[in-house]
Design goal:
Keywords: Transit peptide. This is Folate-binding protein YgfZ. Pfam families: Beta-barrel_CAF17_C. InterPro entries: CAF17_C, TrmE/GcvT-like, YgfZ/GCV_T_CS, YgfZ/GcvT. There is one protein chain. The chain is an alpha+beta fold. It has two domains: 127 residues, Probable tRNA modification gtpase trme, domain 1 (Gyrase A, domain 2); 71 residues, Aminomethyltransferase beta-barrel domains (Elongation Factor Tu (Ef-tu), domain 3). Helix content is 16%, strand content 33%. The chain has five helices and 15 strands. The strands form three sheets. The chain has a six-stranded antiparallel sheet with strand order 11-12-13-10-15-14. A hairpin with a 2-residue loop joins strand 4 and strand 5. The longest helix is centred in the N-terminal third of the chain and has 12 residues. The protein is globular, with a radius of gyration of 18 Å.
Amino acid sequence: MIDHIAHLTSRALIRVSGTDAKPFLHNLLTQDVETIADGEVRFGAMLSPPGRLLFDLFLWGEADGVVLDVAADRRAALIQRLSMYKLRAQVEIAADERPALASWPGVAAGFVVDPRTSAMGGRAIGDHVPDATEADHDAHRLSVGVPDPAADAGSDRTYPIEANFDLLNGIDFQKGCFVGQETTSRMKRRGEIKKRMLPLTFDGAAPAAGTEVLNGALRAGEVLTGRDGAAMALVRLDRLDGPLMVEGRPVAVLYPEWMTPLSQG
C-alpha cells in the first residue's frame, strides 16, 4: 500500500534552543523533555495550572534544543506563554517556518512513527513532497479514532485525560512536576475519568459541533468535529449502554484498537 503525505497547514513550529532549553520545557510540559534524543518525536501538552489542556504538542529533539509542533492559530499564544515562564532561563524562543507533515497509513521514507500510535502513520518536519490534503489526513485520523485536541477540545475546557493523552503517550506520570500535574495525576490515580473523546459512526452528514448525543432522555455527550459518516465526540462513559441518538439518528461509539477494554473507563 502506498503511503500518502500531507502538509499540515493547521500546524506550525516553534524552536526553543539554548543551554536551558530541555530542562526549561521539561518543567512545563506533560512529557519528559530532558531525555528526548536528536531526531526523536514525542507527544505532549502544556496545561493551565488547574490542569486543563491549553496546547497539544509534538516535541522534536534536536542537538541544541527542541522544536514544538503546535496548532498554527495558537503559535503566537504559545510563544507568549513560554516567554512569560522564561525568566532567567538561557533559552531562545522563535517561530520556525518549516512545514509539519504526516504520512499514512504507514511511515514514509524520512518520517518517524507517530508517537501517539503507529496506526496514525508517521510525522516529519521539513521538505517532503505532498500527494494528499490535510482533509485526507483528517479522515484517516477519524478512522483510527484519535482526537485532534486543537480542534476538538477548545481552549481551557478539557482535561488531557478526557482527550486520551494518557492512552496516547502524551503524559509521563513518572517525570515529576509540570504545570497542571497535581490535577492530572489525581484523576489518573483515583480513576476520576468520567468522560473521554471517542469516535462515532452514523449514516449521512456530520452533525454540527455541540450537537447532543442522547441515550434515551439522558445527555450522553456532544459532537465535537466530524465529516460524512464519522465524528469525534466527548461522551460520558457511564451513559453508553443502550441505543444512542444524535438529531434522531442512531449512532454507534467505536472503541479504537489502541484503547484496551481496561482503559475504556
